[in-house]
Amino acid sequence: MKELIETIVKPLVDFPEDVHVFVTEDDSRITYLLSVNKTDMGKVIGKQGRVAKAIRTVVYATGSSQQKKIFLEIGE
């Protein structure tokens, strides 16, 4: 899943080397924290959050076969 997120996000940003995904796993949930360069935040979020919503949709659909709830957080 980490590779999927990086594959989606890296072509969108100006600084692909600054794209990092950190994974935190609990008993009932997996949280992916997407970290990008501060100047690329707007590109990842998109107008009215459309790009972020599309990324989350793909990630959630891919992870729906797992027994745990998946969350994607976007930060600097």
Automatic annotation (TrEMBL):
<comment type="similarity">
    <text>Belongs to the KhpA RNA-binding protein family.</text>
</comment>
<dbReference type="InterPro" id="IPR020627">
    <property type="entry name" value="KhpA"/>
</dbReference>
<dbReference type="GO" id="GO:0008360">
    <property type="term" value="P:regulation of cell shape"/>
</dbReference>
<dbReference type="GO" id="GO:0009252">
    <property type="term" value="P:peptidoglycan biosynthetic process"/>
</dbReference>
<comment type="function">
    <text>A probable RNA chaperone. Forms a complex with KhpB which binds to cellular RNA and controls its expression. Plays a role in peptidoglycan (PG) homeostasis and cell length regulation.</text>
</comment>
<keyword id="KW-0694">RNA-binding</keyword>
<dbReference type="InterPro" id="IPR009019">
    <property type="entry name" value="KH_sf_prok-type"/>
</dbReference>
<dbReference type="Pfam" id="PF13083">
    <property type="entry name" value="KH_KhpA-B"/>
</dbReference>
<dbReference type="GO" id="GO:0003723">
    <property type="term" value="F:RNA binding"/>
</dbReference>
<protein>
    <recommendedName>
        <fullName>RNA-binding protein KhpA</fullName>
    </recommendedName>
</protein>
<keyword id="KW-0963">Cytoplasm</keyword>
<dbReference type="GO" id="GO:0005737">
    <property type="term" value="C:cytoplasm"/>
</dbReference>
<keyword id="KW-0961">Cell wall biogenesis/degradation</keyword>
<keyword id="KW-0143">Chaperone</keyword>
<dbReference type="InterPro" id="IPR015946">
    <property type="entry name" value="KH_dom-like_a/b"/>
</dbReference>
<dbReference type="GO" id="GO:0071555">
    <property type="term" value="P:cell wall organization"/>
</dbReference>
<keyword id="KW-0133">Cell shape</keyword>
<comment type="subunit">
    <text>Forms a complex with KhpB.</text>
</comment>
